[in-house]
Specification:
single chain, about 350 residues, alpha+beta, 5-stranded antiparallel sheet, 5 helices, about 20% helix
């Protein structure tokens, strides 16, 4: 999604070196001459990717070992799901208890403010690239080939399935022999150049694969990604995030048909929180940003730990303020924040 840039322009540009950019707490219903911004809470998102494999047996499946010496071929159709990837990332969700206003006052140079589409503060006096993560679309790959077009008259006129399988297997062996003869240059009319040779071999390979599918079947695959979110406001102990079944794929967290994937989040208290007395004394005097606290994140299933890492969470920390003088008239201060936590990414004067 395109980044949303809100630019606050000064009303008056008269010189006054003591003037400062003013930040206040947001007052609902009160029209403020400025730009409102919000700080985020940190949402944890787990993006899981899986592959669905649909096996369709060939009509000659039970003859695969007898005529082609291919063992272990199943004559039963099946569906199998496999987890292929699990990614963990964070995103910012507006915290409605942390809304502030950058006021545009006379004799003040108001800053340029970049916000996300949901109003979360991204940057001041500069811009940064911003795109919301998009879940990949499902995609399927089909592997079935039309073997019927390669069946000879003798195969089609055979009076039993066993005889058809025998003749189809012989056709496969003949194709393999033809390919070997071409590669050795032992045919009477060889292709004239490399491109022609490739065309001939590709066609023979397609014929062989199509006829072989009559014995070993084919597998169609579908790749699917699903996202699961959690917004912890306190420690989370082995909460079922989702379940996954090898037969059904992703299922609801309370569906016992799937194996549970647990998530644990524990605040590491890396930030000293203000006391009630401190909060009562606190006065908003500068640009407000988050000071996130680190938390340990663990994702596991019945086999053990899949993911383990410490990550910053805005809601486990507190807020702080930058000195108003950083944005005085004539100042060139540039500030960028992490969109997922509201913490300072870069501060340049």
């Amino acid at each position: 999604m395109k980044r949303n840039i809100v630019i606050a322009l000064a009303l008056l540009l008269s010189v006054c070196m003591s003037a400062q950019t003013v930040v206040t707490e947001f007052s609902p219903g009160v029209a403020a001459n400025g730009v409102n911004y919000v700080l985020p809470q940190t949402q944890l998102k787990v993006e899981a990717a899986a592959m669905k494999i649909v096996y369709t047996p060939g009509e000659f499946a039970k003859y695969a070992d007898r005529y082609l010496h291919i063992g272990g071929v199943s004559a039963e159709a099946s569906i199998l799901w496999e987890m292929t990837k699990l990614e963990v990332f964070q995103e910012g969700v507006p915290d409605t208890s942390k809304v502030f206003t950058v006021k545009m006052k006379e004799k003040t140079v108001a800053p340029m403010v970049q916000l996300t589409p949901s109003g979360i503060l991204l940057a001041v006096n500069t811009t940064v690239p911003y795109e919301e993560r998009v879940l990949p679309s499902a995609r399927s790959t089909h592997h079935r080939l039309d073997a019927r077009q390669y069946l000879t008259e003798d195969i089609l006129s055979a009076t039993s399935t066993a005889k058809m399988a025998e003749l189809a297997a012989q056709e496969i062996l003949d194709i393999r022999e033809s390919k070997n003869a071409i590669k050795r240059g032992q045919v009477e009319s060889m292709p004239k150049d490399g491109a022609s040779l490739k065309i001939v071999l590709d066609e023979l390979n397609t014929q062989e694969e199509a006829l072989t599918q009559l014995f070993v079947g084919y597998r169609d695959t579908t790749f699917l990604a699903q996202s699961f979110s959690i917004l912890p406001t306190e420690d989370v102990e082995r909460k079922v995030l989702f379940r996954f079944s090898q037969k059904l794929g992703f299922v609801d967290a309370d569906d016992m048909a799937g194996q549970p994937y647990y998530i644990t989040v524990k605040d590491q208290h890396t930030v000293v929180l203000p006391t009630e007395k401190d909060l009562q004394k606190r006065k908003i005097e500068g640009l407000v940003y988050n000071m996130p606290s680190m938390a340990s994140v663990n994702i596991s299933n019945m086999q053990g730990t899949i993911y383990e890492r410490e990550l910053p969470f805005a809601q486990f920390g507190t807020i702080d303020m930058l000195s108003p003088t950083l944005f005085n008239k004539g100042a060139t201060t540039k500030l960028t924040l992490y969109p997922a936590t509201g913490g300072i990414l870069h501060l340049e004067q």
